[in-house]
Specification:
By secondary structure, the chain is α/β, with parallel strands linked by helices. 29% of the residues lie in helices and 25% in strands. The chain contains 6 helices and 12 strands. Strands 1, 4, 5, 6, 7, 10, 11 and 12 form an 8-stranded mixed beta sheet that branches. Strands 2-3 form a two-stranded antiparallel ribbon. Strands 8-9 form a two-stranded antiparallel ribbon.
Length: 214
């Protein structure tokens, strides 16, 4: 319990890895002798403040994922995810009753306890928090036909967003319920919370906390 609040982690691992390619979804590929998914879960399993973990897997890999996660004693459930990531997280969220909830990508295997600590603190104090790192490259935005006209964006105000993203459970539930009612599909959980008019705190991420995508 974190200051009287239960901390539950939702791990979204139902993706098919279409951008990455290969015979297996990327979260089930191995780095050394562990799968990407196991590496993504371990920091939460070992974290002293995390109470429970809920994993969303695709129907095709549900039993495989259950077997893979059976060694993690904080696993509360491995459930069948939906068509999109948002559907999968929402299905898991229905199993969380109160406290704080963190949402993490199953294909992000290098998260550290320091990042998790900062996200939990940010969520506890502000209601919602996301780990971010400053953009290193110059970013251009296309404004014209076929990209012939473009503009450079001010890099100092741009950040790359990572996971886990942390929230008071009731805030994230309201955000997901509104998104479902509106038929809105966002790119991340914090974006859904922002639609409620709720503030989202930025916490320090880690450049090593990459998501394996392509």
């Amino acid at each position: 319990m974190f200051n009287g609040k239960k901390v539950t982690v939702i791990v979204a691992a139902a993706g098919q890895g279409s951008r990455f390619g290969g015979d297996l979804p990327k979260q089930f590929l191995k780095i050394g002798n562990k799968t990407v998914l196991e590496m993504a879960i371990e920091p939460f399993q070992d974290h002293p403040v995390v109470d429970g973990i809920i994993i969303a897997a695709s129907e095709e890999y549900l039993e495989y994922c259950k077997n893979l996660c059976s060694s993690f004693n904080k696993t509360e459930a491995v459930i069948c995810g939906g068509k999109q990531r948002q559907d999968s997280v929402y299905a898991c969220l229905k199993k969380v009753s109160d406290g704080l909830v963190l949402v993490h990508d199953g294909a992000r295997p290098f998260v550290t306890h320091d990042v998790i600590d900062r996200v939990i603190d940010g969520a506890y104090n502000h209601g919602a928090s996301v780990p971010c790192v400053p953009v290193k490259e110059t970013i251009r935005q296309s404004e014209g036909h076929e990209g012939l006209s473009s503009a450079t964006l001010e890099r100092s105000s741009l950040f790359c967003v990572q996971t886990p993203q942390g929230f008071h459970t009731e805030i994230l539930k309201r955000a997901y319920e509104k998104a479902k009612m509106d038929g809105f599909v966002g790119t991340d959980d914090a974006g859904l919370v922002e639609r409620l008019g709720e503030p989202v705190a930025i916490t320090e991420g880690d450049y090593a906390n990459i998501k394996i995508t392509t």
